[in-house]
Amino acid sequence: MRILIVEDDAALARGILSLLRAAGHAVDHVAGGEEALSVSATEPYSLVILDVGLPDIDGFQVLARLRARGDQSQVLMLTARDGLDDRVRGLDLGADDYLRKPFEVEELEARVRALGRRRGGDAAPEIAIGAMTVNRSTGRVEVAGRLIELRRREWAVLEALAARAGQIVSRETLQAEVFGFDDPVGSNALEVNVTRLRSKLAPDGPAIRTVRGVGYMLDPSTGSG
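The structure corresponding to this sequence follows.
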């Protein structure tokens, strides 16, 4: 997923960034609410991890303005507050989940995975496409019983395509989900990762089709199984 972290605690933000990037996500970070609104207006985020206590405008105002302009990104709110009223307020404004600080990293990871599955319209952690299985909870990929070792960005490409198997995914959508805005990205970086992924899935896994001038599609009719 392409994820935006809105958190003014620099140490906490660095920890979440490292955790989620290691899990294969493209992650950006801002420290204030106004900056979050500005960035999210131009960048397509699947998930916004939004702290309630921000230095300029609070997370509730950010969430309200996101929803008012029609932004459908999933929102996981973080708060040090313990009041039920705050949780209810956030959910009523359109938050998808709520996590109280301090939290264990395993719980944050689990909630992000669950929101990712919900975004894809599938609550199950495992996707089976022909001879390939993709477990979004563990990051494990197997083709015809063979374990496939993937780099972080190869995993991000595969997860994005597998969640939309049989559908054309535009090049712009893939780039937005795989690379953060501060990632050093060459002009052919996406193609390089797709080429590597094709090689690793062959010969038994589903093929990644190039739709010239548009994007890519994971073809569920190919591969054994």
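The helical segments are 10-22, 33-40, 59-68, 84-93, 105-119, 152-162, 171-178, 189-201.
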